[in-house]
Amino acid sequence: MNAPQPQVIKMYAAREEIYPREIDGRYARLRWLFVWLTQLAFYCTPWLQWNGRQALLFDLGARKFYIFGLVLWPQDFIYLAALLIISAYLLFLATAIAGRVWCGFTCPQTVYTEIFLWIERRIEGKRSARIALARQPWSLNKFGRKGAKHLAWGAVALWTGFTFVGYFTPIQQLLGEVATLNFGPWEWFWVLFYSFATYGNAGWMREQVCKYMCPYARFQSSMFDRDTLIITYDARRGEPRGPLSKTSNGNGGSCIDCSLCVQVCPTGIDIRKGLQYECIGCAACVDACNTVMDKTGQPRGLIRYSTERAMDEHLTPTEIRRRATRPRVRIYTAVLGLIVLATSGALYLRMPLKLDVIRDRGSMGREVEDGMIENVYRLQIMNTSEQAHVYKITVGGMDTLAQVTPDLVRVEATETKAYPIRLRAAHGAGKPGSNRINVALEAVDDASLHVKESAVFIVPR
């Protein structure tokens, strides 16, 4: 008696390779416009100079963030938090109005996948040629084409990783280290890691990132409503599907079932089945369908940007635009405006001077010559501007309180300086124990640069 054959249960469906077809149209050109804009900004910004330094540099070693004319320190972390909040609200607002436009046009995964696909098409050919090449046995021609493609992908990925690290290490210095490969350990790690991530995500994983790794695809529905613009298929007009002969005779819908909308989709879905979480809103299917409608002499818009309410109630474009300013959108806009206004005001009023007064705990209040009481402090002065200043130190809050050390100190541009001072007061000027005092700094050349901090003066009991 033969033993029963073991049954294999697959818990994960094997991936079907997707070969998106190239399409031209309004949204394809718009998508490439954003590719150019985002990549010109990404690759060119590190090379911009400002006041003799890199315009945009996040110098983690020196703990200074240079953003054109603005220098931020770790104490300014609140501005980074505000920037993240603003970005989140912008995403929520854009999603509530127009669905996944971020994913379809400006997401780095979409942008680099588009670039890598362009390289693939230039080397391996159109969709049918790429499919045929993949099915062929290995040969010199196949090896050459595949090898050239991966070399081109690798070059783009390495330059991307190099540019990314150039935001944290001065890129001109980094370029000088390329010839000798004299990178530091963390520079080696991040150049190779970011290059590998770009190569793997845009070259190999592609739609898998959007389907399974990106959390945005999973919770986007919570930001949608019946008035959110999404990619829609007009089933009333398109069904029943059939070949062009039936459509021409009036026996079928406008959809001729050519499947071009599926062939151009970067995630491989059929938009005619309705909105799916895999749809990234790139509108490639809209361009493809409009091309078919033009060729068959039918009106455009079988697949189009519309809303669920517009499809059900046959709203006009004017009515769709009017519904865009619904309460949810107004709330998002109001909150976003308040946050932007508050952040802009805080940055405008931000004082490019910081002071910490630290009392020397190893030297408590002591009596010195002439019966004076002396306390020692260390002033931690941070000049966050890009101009050197001389500051005058003044103290107050207690009778007869005076400085023994010089009251002028020079702090270079974007420098943190520790400056010790000694303060004395006459015996009996304050109560025994702690006495509140204040220490103030004011720039000699600019009276608007001033700051005051409180401290404690100890009088021995």
From TrEMBL:
<keyword id="KW-0004">4Fe-4S</keyword>
<feature type="transmembrane region" description="Helical">
    <location>
        <begin position="30"/>
        <end position="50"/>
    </location>
</feature>
<keyword id="KW-0812">Transmembrane</keyword>
<keyword id="KW-0479">Metal-binding</keyword>
<keyword id="KW-0249">Electron transport</keyword>
<dbReference type="Pfam" id="PF11614">
    <property type="entry name" value="FixG_C"/>
</dbReference>
<dbReference type="InterPro" id="IPR051684">
    <property type="entry name" value="Electron_Trans/Redox"/>
</dbReference>
<feature type="transmembrane region" description="Helical">
    <location>
        <begin position="77"/>
        <end position="98"/>
    </location>
</feature>
<feature type="transmembrane region" description="Helical">
    <location>
        <begin position="188"/>
        <end position="205"/>
    </location>
</feature>
<dbReference type="InterPro" id="IPR017900">
    <property type="entry name" value="4Fe4S_Fe_S_CS"/>
</dbReference>
<keyword id="KW-1133">Transmembrane helix</keyword>
<dbReference type="GO" id="GO:0051539">
    <property type="term" value="F:4 iron, 4 sulfur cluster binding"/>
</dbReference>
<keyword id="KW-0408">Iron</keyword>
<feature type="domain" description="4Fe-4S ferredoxin-type">
    <location>
        <begin position="246"/>
        <end position="274"/>
    </location>
</feature>
<keyword id="KW-0472">Membrane</keyword>
<dbReference type="InterPro" id="IPR032879">
    <property type="entry name" value="FixG_C"/>
</dbReference>
<dbReference type="InterPro" id="IPR013783">
    <property type="entry name" value="Ig-like_fold"/>
</dbReference>
<dbReference type="InterPro" id="IPR017896">
    <property type="entry name" value="4Fe4S_Fe-S-bd"/>
</dbReference>
<dbReference type="Pfam" id="PF12801">
    <property type="entry name" value="Fer4_5"/>
</dbReference>
<dbReference type="GO" id="GO:0046872">
    <property type="term" value="F:metal ion binding"/>
</dbReference>
<keyword id="KW-0411">Iron-sulfur</keyword>
<protein>
    <submittedName>
        <fullName>Cytochrome c oxidase accessory protein CcoG</fullName>
    </submittedName>
</protein>
<feature type="transmembrane region" description="Helical">
    <location>
        <begin position="151"/>
        <end position="168"/>
    </location>
</feature>
<dbReference type="Pfam" id="PF13746">
    <property type="entry name" value="Fer4_18"/>
</dbReference>
<dbReference type="GO" id="GO:0005886">
    <property type="term" value="C:plasma membrane"/>
</dbReference>
<dbReference type="InterPro" id="IPR014116">
    <property type="entry name" value="Cyt_c_oxidase_cbb3_FixG"/>
</dbReference>
<feature type="transmembrane region" description="Helical">
    <location>
        <begin position="331"/>
        <end position="349"/>
    </location>
</feature>
<keyword id="KW-0813">Transport</keyword>
